[in-house]
Amino acid sequence: MEHIKTIETRNLCESAKNGGCGECQTSCSSGIANQKCES
Amino acid sequence: MIHQYQLLGYNIVLDVCSGSVHAVDQVAYDLIALFEGRSREEVLSAMVQKHPELTEAELSECYDQVDALARAGKLFTPDTFAPLAGELKQKTSGVVKALCLHIAHTCNLNCSYCFASQGKYHGERAVMSWEVGKQAIDFLIAHSGTRRNLEVDFFGGEPLMNFDVVKKIVAYARSIEAQHGKHFRFTLTTNGVLIDQDVIDFANRECDNVVLSLDGRKEVHDRYRVDYAGNGSWDRVVPKFQELVRQRGGKSYYMRGTFTHANPDFLQDIRQMLDLGFTELSMEPVVCAPDDPARLTQEDLDLVCRQYEELAELMLHREREGRPFTFYHYMLDLTGGPCIYKRISGCGSGTEHMAVTPWGDLYPCHQFVGEERFRLGDLWHGVTNPAVQGEFASCNVYAHPQCHDCWARLYCSGGCAANAYHATGAVTGVYEDGCRLFRKRMECAIVLAVDKALRS
């Protein structure tokens, strides 16, 4: 029986290897959690 | 670290450091709560007590599923990101990619709750000259390094009180962006009083986004948003906002309201905006001095948290009815969200993002303008106060000891430096009331994203 449904998400550990380009929008009171990666 | 909660019929488990999100049944929800720090036998023994209706084989099956996720790095992932703190800011040191232009330190409304002191920022009335605006564009291009996408916000006060300069700045930026390999994204924040067809044409042609200030219900809006004669502005601005949005043709906008002690039941204001035909919405809690009558009380905050949950429920219903709307803080993209560097380093105020006064001084962001100790420099000499910039460069989620045990730290990045400063006197402080509301908003946003993912 399936007890757990895992939702597809961006893996943060992986993003440490391929992130950090700095092209994403600055954020503000969208907020950081709501941002989209520029790619 | 994990965070478990139950909302809108879902059992949610968030693995904080991998970003994994799981929707689980009650058995897995209970088992995950027991999993860490206990042996398999201890967990199963406790689960037999809790779920006598299940066989040991059934419980073992559930245990194995949880164990597999933990081994796959999707549950109980350790936090190994601390060494990365500050890396993005070091890597991008000296790069500026966004300016908030204070086009006008004056306003045609006299809102008593205005953080900017009726648009004057505790100073004299002033408007930005074309020469300062041009210098701001040149400064941004010169300091943007390899960044292609540059952002300019037209802010105030009321930017439309200096609309001719706004138009000249945009025309200038558009005329030189290609030769510099840049792309400008312009945004405009307005109270709506001066919107006419010329403004609508300009905003819909040039602005990636517009922020339209509306507090919702007429009696709520007109309590604070009055002109200098004391007259409310709702009747004047609503038809103009409706016309701008009607002509916007699907481009981004959002209605930006503020709720205070007078209307912690802000969901009624959201409903009012929906009734007016607006579907991209934001309502923000007022941040003000402790003795301000507009300040939200602890009782208000309890109600606000319940309102956030009811808002999520309303969004679910409307989505299923084919009448969706968006709420600024619930627009969570689980698959395309920011990388860990961005999540750690925060909003970039004082480093990659600055505010520009009408006379060309630089501040970390719009909320610090007028506080002389935070003046960074100016458009002609650049940053001449490296000590203050250093304060902001060191702002990251690991600079806040209070955040170490918070499950939401990689969603808020340590929070808003301005709110922290105004609440605690330090930009690395923590604004506890803001944290409480933020965590509730994230719980709601995640459950909405889960619902959407499972239905698709």
Helical run tally of chain B: 16
Biggest interface: chains and residue counts?
A-B, 35 and 74 residues
Rg from alpha-carbon coordinates of chain B = 24 Å
Q: How much strand content do the residues of chain B show? A: 15-25%
**Share of residues in strands of chain A:** 5-15%
Structural class category of chain A = alpha+beta
Q: Could you list the spans of chain B in which at least 5 consecutive residues all have pLDDT below 50? A: none
Report the strand count of chain A. Answer: 1
Topology at a glance:
The complex is a heterodimer of chains A (39) and B (456).
Chain A: E1 4-7, H1 12-18
Chain B: E1 2-7, E2 10-15, E3 21-24, H1 26-35, H2 40-50, H3 56-71, H4 87-91, E4 98-105, E5 126-127, H5 130-142, E6 149-156, H6 163-177, E7 183-190, H7 197-206, E8 207-213, H8 218-224, H9 234-248, E9 254-259, H10 267-275, E10 280-285, H11 298-320, E11 326-327, H12 340-345, E12 353-356, E13 361-363, E14 377-378, E15 382-383, H13 386-393, H14 409-412, H15 417-424, H16 432-455
Parallel strand pairs in B: 4-6, 4-12, 6-7, 7-8, 8-9, 9-10, 10-11
Antiparallel strand pairs in B: 1-2, 2-3, 4-5, 12-13, 13-14, 14-15
Helix pairs in contact in B: 1-2, 1-3, 2-3, 5-6, 7-9, 11-16
Entry summary:
The complex is a heterodimer of chains A (39) and B (456). With 39 residues, chain A is an alpha+beta fold.
Describe this structure in words.
The complex is a heterodimer of chains A (39) and B (456). Chain A has 39 residues and is of the alpha+beta class. In chain A, 18% of the residues lie in helices and 10% in strands. Chain A is built from 1 helix and 1 strand; from the N terminus they run βα. Chain A starts with a strand and ends in a 21-residue tail after the last helix. Chain B folds into 2 domains: 2-78; 89-456, TIM Barrel (Alpha-Beta Barrel), CATH 3.20.20. Chain B has helices at residues 26-35, 40-50, 56-71, 87-91, 130-142, 163-177, 197-206, 218-224, 234-248, 267-275, 298-320, 340-345, 386-393, 409-412, 417-424, 432-455, and strands at 2-7, 10-15, 21-24, 98-105, 126-127, 149-156, 183-190, 207-213, 254-259, 280-285, 326-327, 353-356, 361-363, 377-378, 382-383. In chain B, the strands form 2 sheets. In chain B, strands 4, 5, 6, 7, 8, 9, 10, 11, 12, 13, 14 and 15 form a 12-stranded mixed sheet that branches. Chain B has a 3-stranded antiparallel sheet with strand order 1-2-3, with helices on both faces. In chain B, helix 11 links the parallel strand 10 (280-285) and strand 11 (326-327). The chains are: A alpha+beta (39), B alpha/beta (456). Chains A and B meet through strand 1 and helix 1 of A and strand 3, helix 3, helix 4, helix 12 and helix 14 of B.
